[in-house]
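Much of the work behind modern protein science is quiet bookkeeping, done one molecule at a time. The fold becomes a row of whole numbers, each drawn from a learned catalogue of backbone shapes. The protein below has been through that process, and both of its lines are reproduced in full.
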Amino acid sequence: MPDWSDVPLLYQAQIEGRCQLQRQENKQKSRAYDWVDQWTKFYHSADDSGGKSPQPDKTPKSQQRPSPVKKNNLSEPPQFSGEAKTRPYTMTWRLVTNGGQDDGIIRPAIGARGYPYYPGSSMKGAFRRACACTTEQALKYCGKPSEGDQGSEPGILRFLGGYPTDNNWTRNLVDIAHPQQEKQVIQDGKTNANVLLSFHEVTLNFGISSTIPLDEQEWRTIWQIWEKAIGNGLGSRVSAGYGRFKDVPSPETLLQVHLKGQGIAATLLDKTPEFRPNMFKAALRGHTLRLLGGMTDEKTAKHLTQILWGGIDGAATLGQLGISFTHHDDDLKFDKHRYTPPGQREQIMPLYNLKRGTLQISCMNPCASPEERQELAELAKAIVQFSLLLGGFGKSWRRADHWQFFRPYLEKGNKPMIGCHWKFIDSSKSLYLPITDLQQDLSQFIDRLRTLFQNYAAKQGYTIHPDNPVHCDWREAWYPYDNQGGVQVWGRIVEDRIKAITWFHQPYEGTHTLRNLQGSIGRDSQTGRLWHRIYPYYQLNSEGKLQQQKPPIELLTFFPETTEDSAHFIAFLNERSDFVKIW
């Protein structure tokens, strides 16, 4: 009698003791890798093994089952019929297709012979949305859906789906979703890394056919609409950078920002380093929540954040803003930082160094009015400026990059890497804040950003005020410090050396340290109450153009708690340091 373990993981129940793909327990290998291995082992042709030798089947021959399909038939992707018009498009990063859900994990859409694809029905939906502001086109190409007793009327186009052009889709399928907003903004707590299956940098060949003959001009129009559709993203999680395609800009782009940065790379469950564009949305969304949390109650702050950036708190919401991030492969390099803690084995931390990348922020509503688009663009620009002024993106964003600004800390080879550093480059240097008076200019910028959020809330039907005494009781809610909570921003122009970076590693005064304020990593990790940032110092010259000054600016953002450590550090900054209180 067959045992339940003989059933492929694809078909096993997602229950305790069986498959449970989504859960990542302790340091054990995720079952998702076994699931993927079982699924993809038939699809590697002799010259498409991803640089790895095929693994022999160690199952005893008496227990081996014949393959349902010949391997030779699986080494080539499905092909469209000759009547179909096709075009290939390559992803900038990852794509999530939805083939159904089992206990929290979304399975990819899988077609004939077990081959993955992007469904034609989803193509039609994306195409129709791209026609949303042109009803005539939507009716002609996609038809009229049934309403009440009235039957549907088909359009002239048939959407045949999208299929990978080769078997590279089998690589890097196991993705990870690690929600941290609660821990990063509100309070410390346990976070879970959940498995996600998504296609990584795959080229998809999309097919469309017509029930009537069409001339070349009309086919050009059809492909223009399709590129508008994929410019807004396909599949799930598009507002976080998934489902985007190379050389297909979003038609609804509000803001384009050129950036460079370096820091600690994120890793997948198997410790493979990956540069993950969704970290930009995480930072921008997090700052939105912090700022709104200092101006209104918790329910309103979370709701307004979800309206702006999307989310699944309650009903799923497609936000008004989405991001995509693109870069050339030659502009991104990975490296390794090796260190050996005292009494332990050597540890390896993956690092990234991005010379150039483009962050695009798009309006997710194609029918938004020009006025609405302008207001969203202004708000998005200010949030990006705030992010680079006081923080960064990705892992360890609260701390300045030690490789650039505190090299002696790393010289003995026994310390982990800390921090990141991001800059505007090229045409985006105009986003730097010009500073004549450090205290006045930066405080005015923060106040202006809070006013933009006030105006945004009013557009959504909420009346709030930046100085509203009602605010969230969160660790990082952004309101003026009042001896109970809130935030302080301190800064100085670096005329001699960067000072605060050493305070995180040795006493800043006498025997007083930041040990209880700076956070910790490891099993009992805690989020720190201090951000440290080195920001370029720009002034406007006589021609009104930005001109960089030689010394940078050092900034500290502090969320004090009602402890002696916080009180002493505030007194030190105020009375015995050359930092000035900015906000």
